Amino acid sequence: MNIHDIEIFLAIIRERSISKAAETLSLSQSTISHRLRSLENSLGITLLERYRGRKDINLTPEGDVFVGLARKWLSLHEETHKLMEGAPRLRLTVGGVDSVNYYIFPPLFRRLIHNDPPLEMNITTHHSTEIYALLEKGAVDIGFVNHDARCPGIEAVPVLRERFLVIRLKSGVGPPSPIRPQDLDPAKELLHAWFPEYQAWHDFWWSPDKPAVARFNVASMLLSFFDDERVWAIVPASVARVLAAAGPLQAHEILDPPPDRVVYCITSKYVRAYTSAAMQIFRQHMDAFLLELQNVR
User: What is the rounded distance in angstroms from the CA atom of residue 68 to the CA atom of residue 65?
Assistant: First the structure.
């Protein structure tokens, strides 16, 4: 058994297909199949169930146990190489939805960049479902998403809860008054479907078939579209504060509001050894930052 066979096995699990694993690793399917058999022979167990005519893969009970061991083996191998190269560097790849990366976490990211020792971060922005997939593949180390998908091998912990507000152009003087959903014109909405429970609330008040001004999947695009006092959008409070500060907008409380937006921190249950120190630093700073944020609110 060698590390390359383990990498091939984990690629098959990650891609859920021998052919896709072969494509990802730039190897032939016959090579992938040969290395998988070699790994099984060296272990003396069968890792994958094989059925003629079926392309999908299923782990045997022994294979399911070996997945965790293989990830630990690969992590130790990577850590050993980093030790041989010199002092390990604190690196972390963070994947977040845009409403977290742009509107909530910039102060946290700045703190981590100036940490002593500094934390090298690769910060990427994706949709929630994409972040789950990237975490499963090992392409990100920690993610921040809008829902708990309940994926095996992934731990999802709620770290932030916030209400939704209506934002629209300022009108009149004095504090903005609360708004009832039935008083909003759905034809003037800038629509963002935040998560399934929010969409269900939205569909209760307005038919999903009615047209909106525009539909968005990133909150950072909203600001450019408020050219009419009747145009409106529903956004989390953190997004509303930033948008109101950046333009002639104001935020209104919602009567009969949607469910709160919950931000989940997701991590793999199989943490790679060489990221554990960086992950610990990130979590310490994140916990302190979120506590400060809660006290401000």
Answer: 6
